[in-house]
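ugh ok so i messed up the first submission bc i forgot one of the chains. this is the corrected input, ALL of the components this time, i swear. 580 residues overall. if the numbers dont match what u have on ur side tell me asap before i send this to the collaborators (the ones from the other lab, u know who)
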Amino acid sequence: MVEMPQIAPIGTEGYLVRFADRLDDAANKALQGYAEALEAEAVEGVVEISTALASVFVRFDVLRITRADLVAKLQTLLSSRDWKTETNKAKPRLWRVPTLYGGAAGPQLGEVAKLVGVSEEAAVRELSEVRVRVLAIGFAPGQPYLGMLPERWDVPRQTELSPRVPQGALVLAVRQLNLFANETPTGWRHIATTHMKLFRPKEPQPFALRPGDEVLFPAVSEHDWAMLETEPMGGAKLEEASDA
Amino acid sequence: MPELTLHQIGPNASLQDLGREGYLRFGLSRGGAMDRVAILEAAALLGQRLDLTAIELPSASVKLGVSVAQRVALTGAPMLADADGRALQWGASHKLEAGEVLSLRPTGRGLYGYIAFGGGIETDLTLGHRSAHFTGGLGRALQAGDVLLLGDDTKAGEPPRRLKPDARFDGGRLRFVTGPQTGLYSADMLAAFEATRFTKSGHANRQAAKLEHEGAPFAAEGQLGIVSEVIVPGDIQMTGEGEPFVLLAEHQTMGGYPRIGAVIPQDMPRIAQASAGAELWFERISLEEADALYLPEKELLRRIRDASEPLVRDPREMSDLLSYQLISGMITGQED
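and heres the new structure output, hopefully the right one now
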């Protein structure tokens, strides 16, 4: 077992600060706080900071900072506080994303409800109210991994891929939700659809979501959902700070 | 404004530059030219900067013309080039007259040829750049009939130049550094990996190049339990079948397959340009050695420019050779 957190070189221009060797909500929160603090330090020679599910990636310019100095800076910040108990100074942003559950918009909602052992109505009620956090963005530009759902939503991925799940699909597996930026094959189960646009390259703010944002997926009626299609963000609304 | 018309163009050709940095956290990899050196070479030949945009031609023929005379730079994988039948040397700049048809055809050596223009390509920017990023949904493949805006070539009268020839189109050695997942492989496995001769598969795109080999697959210990971590360009990823994929310009930003190490940036053009069937092998170097090789692209551009020279006519192409006065003693018959 490697002791965590761990600082290790990756490629010729980067370091990885690993907080866990598996997905863990507390470690993910900790690494997001660490990445934010590192960003705020504006270390000379650090050119990019990016977060994944369980680690922070730091890209540097070897002509502007030595490896030894960079590792020392990363380690000093790491040791400066307990990142797992550190409560973020900045309150997370909260998104409300109108969502149509079940039916053609979520053909596998029934399957998921059955695996969890609740009725479809109860599943929709609970998923409408659970606040999930952007754990990381990846796979496609702007596409979030969202979590963690309560224990009983630990539904395994399908062994067979669904060949085509549409853009805007809300899918579920292993206590996580994912919102698809593009049509794609997937082993996650398709439970609902939104009109949210995750990546708009021509806009001044091309990416809607940021790691650490919180997201709610409230159920709306088919009629209301259809009306939202032409709205710029598909009706998704951002509150700058949540009261969580 | 001057215009560029594509009369004919093969599949998956696209506008490329050095890509977009800084969007990893949003799930967008840098992208950009598969052979970054070819972009620097074009900039060196044309006296342009690092922000130059070129057309990337993946083993694809093209016929094109410009509405106002421009210099063009031909770099990357060698292609057969002519302008209205006038043969043009590869790895060089040339003047293309208005209305001439420039025709480029692959030679089978290397994969990606590039053509850049003295006035620069002036199409709209997306996230500050013009390069297409197919997996990220930015831009598109160029098509026959496309008309692109060019800038005025203010140095159109400058004499053509040529590059020193380069050997990056024939496969060969790929230097790599170990990384945070190298420990998933036993020392024996790593030694076998370095001793193996791979061939480039025909299964290659802007995202990754697959390598094939004879013998046992390269399996990691605990291969399936890895949480997705950031991917860097050059990462050597092993799929479940134990065949390596080297991740290229349009890599995904995170991945859960184990990686034995990462090819250094200096050898990325070599893996990208290797043709299907080309032989490739991996040689581990230390981070200290990799750091000693590091050269910022701005500095590399300056070196390529300094090493380039005026383009002189190749005697083999001179049909009127006998009319030249060859100075006695200059040609001994013993060269080469």
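quick check: Chain A has a mean pLDDT of 93. that seems consistent at least. Residues 25-41 of chain A form the longest helix (17 residues).
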